[in-house]
Amino acid sequence: MVLSGDLTNLRLVHTINCIGKVVEFMSYFPETAERIIDEEYDFETDLTIESIQGILEDMLSDTVEQWFRATLFNMWLEESNYSELARLTGIPRTSISQAVQECKAYIKQRIDNGITD
Q1: Cα torsion angle, 102, 108, 114, 117, sign
Q2: What is the dihedral of CA 30, 35, 38, 41, to 10 degrees?
Q3: Exposure string (b/e) for 98-112, b if CB count within 10 Å is 16 or more?
Q4: pLDDT digits over 98-117, tens only?
Q5: Which stretches of the chain are DSSP H helices?
Q6: Which of 7, 26, 70, 98 could bond 59 through an S-S bridge, CB–CB 3.0 to 4.6 Å?
Q7: pTM score, two decimals?
């Protein structure tokens, strides 16, 4: 069981580790780091990505059909070539394509309806 103070300490240690990694990155790649710092952070994009990740997690624990769609969608994010995915999985390209398109439509519908949890 994690106590409230332990959780706060864990977050602090994690934050310190992240800051250390950022400083290390900045020392190795100063030009890239400067460009990244100058860019404005897009909170809307970040929230959309988090919403999509949450919807995919829900789909993985939903019906077998939703799990199938979410799993193929995640695989497609890593390898966007349907032929290659078909070769790797033994699933026909058209089935993969259809599952990915259905997953995209489902995610879009959930976001458009404001249902992200």
Answers
A1: positive
A2: -110
A3: ebbebbeebbeebee
A4: 999 999 999 999 988 886 55
A5: 4-28, 30-38, 43-60, 64-78, 82-89, 93-112
A6: 70
A7: 0.63
Cα atoms found within 13 Å of the Cα of residue 89, Cβ hemisphere only: 20
Residue 109: closest CA among 69, 77, 81: 69
Residue 116 in tokens: 């992200």
Tokens of 77: 């994010």
Considering only CA atoms, which of 64, 99, 70, 66 is closest in space to residue 82?
Answer: 99
With 0-12 CB in 10 A as exposed, 13-18 as middle and 19+ as buried, what is 51?
middle
